[in-house]
Amino acid sequence: MNYVFPPDVDCRVKRQLETGSYHSEDDVLRAAMTALEHEHDDLEAIQAGIADMEAGRFRPFSEIDAAFRLKHNIPAKS
């Protein structure tokens, strides 16, 4: 599939190629798509966390901290 980038995007792609981090426009596009997918996944996880909090599905930090310290033999805070 051939695609002609809009001028502003083409300029940004060329700048990325000039850094030497990418060998082709395809590599830049792959990296951009990967970043977008990660961002989407992160936003979904955040939304799920918010939904859990709003539904009361959480534990206080002090409880998690105590369990972690016990599991890893870390003394309690002084």
Brief summary:
This protein is mainly α and 78 residues long.
- Averaging pLDDT over every residue, what do you get? 95
Decide which structural class fits the backbone: mainly alpha
Main sheet properties: none
* Percentage of residues in DSSP E strands: under 5%
Cα-to-Cα separation, first versus last residue: 63 Å
Number of helices: 3
**Count of separate structural domains:** 1
Helix fraction by DSSP (H/I, runs of at least 4): 55-70%
What's the helix and strand layout?
Elements: H1 7-18, H2 25-54, H3 61-71
Structure, described:
With 78 residues, this protein is mainly α. The protein is 68% helix and 0% strand. It is built from three helices and no strands. The longest helix has 30 residues, at 25-54.
Features:
78 residues; mainly alpha; 68% helix; elongated
